[in-house]
Automatic annotation (TrEMBL):
Pfam families: PilZ (PF07238). GO terms for molecular function: cyclic-di-GMP binding. This is PilZ domain-containing protein. Residues 19-77 form the PilZ domain. InterPro entries: PilZ_domain. It comes from Solibacter usitatus (strain Ellin6076).
Length: 104
């Protein structure tokens, strides 16, 4: 699901220092999310952010630089599953709603 919400993320760097930054939640699914950030996050680092009804936690699986910033892929912990009922981003688009159903 595509979205564009701002979230405040937290993680610990390799030295154990707590870090934080603002990120744009680009997309989200049951198993993970993609964040756009101004700085890179090391692979494997545990990362967290909060929403009104849900706390998100996972591990960084990729971090790539594109023209407008770093895109950070987060795989949610196995015990966590995102649900639209618990948290739906304010700026949210389900691409399936754009597909026309075949005519009978």
């Amino acid at each position: 699901m595509m979205c564009a919400d701002m979230v405040e993320v937290r993680w610990r760097d390799r030295s154990g220092k707590e870090r934080g930054a603002i990120a744009i939640l680009e997309d989200i699914s049951v198993s993970g999310a993609c964040l756009q950030m101004e700085l890179p996050i090391p692979l494997g680092v545990e990362i967290q952010w909060d929403a009104p009804q849900q706390q998100f936690q996972g591990h960084v699986r990729y971090c790539v630089y594109r023209e407008i910033g770093y895109f950070v892929g987060v795989e949610f912990d196995p015990s966590f599953k995102w649900s639209k009922k618990a948290f739906q981003p304010k700026h949210f688009l389900d691409p399936q709603t754009l597909v026309k159903e075949p005519r009978p």
